[in-house]
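note to self — DONT lose this again. spent like an hour looking for the file last time. sequence + predicted structure for the chain T wanted, 256 res
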Amino acid sequence: MFKALKRWWKYLTAKVSGSLDERADPKVQIQQAISEAQDQHRRLREQAANVIANQKQLEMQLSRTMGELEKANGNARQALMMQSQAAQAGDGAKASEYGQAAESIATRMIELEKAVDDQKTMVLQATQAADQAKAAVQQNSLALQKKLAERQKLLSQLDQAKMQEQLNTAMATLSENVGQDVPTFDEVRDKIEARYAKAKGMAELQGSTVENRMLEIEQATANTEAKGRLDEMRVELGLASAPQPAAVEPPQPSGA
């Protein structure tokens, strides 16, 4: 029973996820992915900052401990000198006190030296961790910049895909039947071509009728008359000589 419920739950989850992916706006999904990458980068920077801060604190502690060690070293030397001076002056009590102070300072020096060694090791480890954190931030920053640049490319491709889809839809409708009352483009083209062919056929038939031949004769006659009138005007203007009348042969006698 439990396995059946688990299998059914996985099925429902996959179905809902599939429906969401199909209906989701790619632009929104891209922005969500970029926002998530930016959040991860911010968290990585915060973690790296904590690692680097720990390194800085250890370095400051080491510097402070080394300063205390240097000061203790100077105090121990001073105590030894004052012990020697008191002994030379015959003041045994002060010489003893200075000696005890020198021993106490020496014990403190040993503790400080051990602390310096430990802190140097910790600083070295913290420095390595800080370098790794810096490298991780730098690498993730480059990856984020790459994603941001790729986002612009993806958004441009998405816009081009949408325009291409709209163009494909518009082209598909040119050859589809859009309704009984609206003819398709192919139907309109066939109708126009048929009408044009019929008109050309009628023109060819009309060009071979008797009426057309009579019109051609009348037009030729009019052209001849117009040419004769122009020739007369040229003679009147002196632009041409009058045409010579044709020679008439005398009639032959019938008995000849």
